[in-house]
Amino acid sequence: MPKVSDSYVSRAMAREELGQAQEAGGEDPSPAWRAALDDLAQAISIDAVHADPYVEQGNTLALLAGRDEDPRAGIAKAIARYDEAVRRNPSSDDAWYERGRVRLELAHAVDQHGGDPLPDCRAALVDVEKAAALRPTHTVAPCAVGWAHLEIARYLVAGGKDPAEELRRAIAAYGEVVARAPACSDALYGRATGRLRLGKLEADEGSDPRGEFRGAAEDYDAVLALWPRDLGSASNGALAWMWLGNAQEALGEAPAAAYGKALATCDTALRIDPNRWETHLTKGGLLDLMGRAAEGVSCLEEALRLTPGNSTVQQALAEAKAKLAPPPEWMKRITEGTKAIDSGDYVSARKALEEGIATGGEAAEADRLPSRRTALVYANYDLACVYALLSIGKESPTAAAHAVAPEEVARLRDAAFAHLKKAVDLGWADAEATAKDADLATLRDDAKWKTLIERMGGK
Question: Contact at 8 Å (CB) between 233 and 192?
Answer without folding.
Answer: yes
